[in-house]
């Protein structure tokens, strides 16, 4: 297993170290793990001015998968690393599925704690929409400034992510797919999403489908999240909804994600949904569980289903023993999970 590792900024290196610890503990002896670490992020940018040189992009592409911690630092102008590194990787490696499970673990804390029926997956489009960088500014810095960001939605891009979501719904017990958009306002993009969704739905008569405007979806995420199974949505709606999803399924410390290239033409990339959390970086307080669960997604993507399930079971058992009055640190949680898997 050739794994590229990008620890990145803030708490990234701390949580990635625990993710790798757990990976080493769960891998069967016949799988030889080779990791290559990439020094990318704020430190590198300050030292050299480089964000993601072509040679490194090329070399990252030679791996079976990428594990990423977090990108972004307040000392770097906003967007430089986010666009130049994280989004560049998603676009260059055609990560058109951004898979973000929202499962309420038993014993997780939060507003919905104890509701066993919360188990959904958000399929967020990863290469288009408002993230495409299709915009510009005129008369910058003057009172007459005009700024535009135009959402890019191609028939090709919309259809492939919707197809992935239907195929995923086919293998889930509840077999339901919800399209989330805002087609009462974003009529052009909304029309493309809805007509494509309806056309692909005809090929999946066994899947129950529905549609929600994104604002209404935020209400249901809080009041009735058990109504969701698979959700498909565009890049920005998916970004916002999955932070909310994390908040209602045990917190951002548990939310995992996979940036998938389902065709396998480039490596897929796995990362916690949370950011670099500069306020707690270096304190050892970050919860590495989201990274550990992202490692489980990575293993499943590479066909190691049994190991993925073992990690998820270890996390569930660990969550059951967590005491909110005595929070453990990053390393302690990683050690506890690794010990469970080794034992
Ligand atoms: C995420 C993050 C990124 C995004 C940022 C850091 C560019 O918020 O992975 O959800 O907006 O996609
Ligand atoms: Mn986000």
From TrEMBL:
It is found in: Cytoplasm. Pfam families: Iso_dh (PF00180). GO terms for molecular function: 3-isopropylmalate dehydrogenase activity. This is 3-isopropylmalate dehydrogenase. Mg(2+) binds at residues 215, 239, 243. Binds 1 Mg(2+) or Mn(2+) ion per subunit. Its EC number is 1.1.1.85. Homodimer. Substrate binds at residues 90, 100, 124, 215. Pathway: Amino-acid biosynthesis; L-leucine biosynthesis; L-leucine from 3-methyl-2-oxobutanoate: step 3/4. The record marks 131, 182 as: Important for catalysis. It comes from the Bacteria. Transmembrane segments: none annotated. NAD(+) binds at residues 275-287. Its cofactor is Mn(2+); Mg(2+). Belongs to the isocitrate and isopropylmalate dehydrogenases family. LeuB type 2 subfamily. Keywords: Amino-acid biosynthesis, Branched-chain amino acid biosynthesis, Cytoplasm, Leucine biosynthesis, Magnesium, Manganese, Metal-binding, NAD, Oxidoreductase. It catalyses: (2R,3S)-3-isopropylmalate + NAD(+) = 4-methyl-2-oxopentanoate + CO2 + NADH.
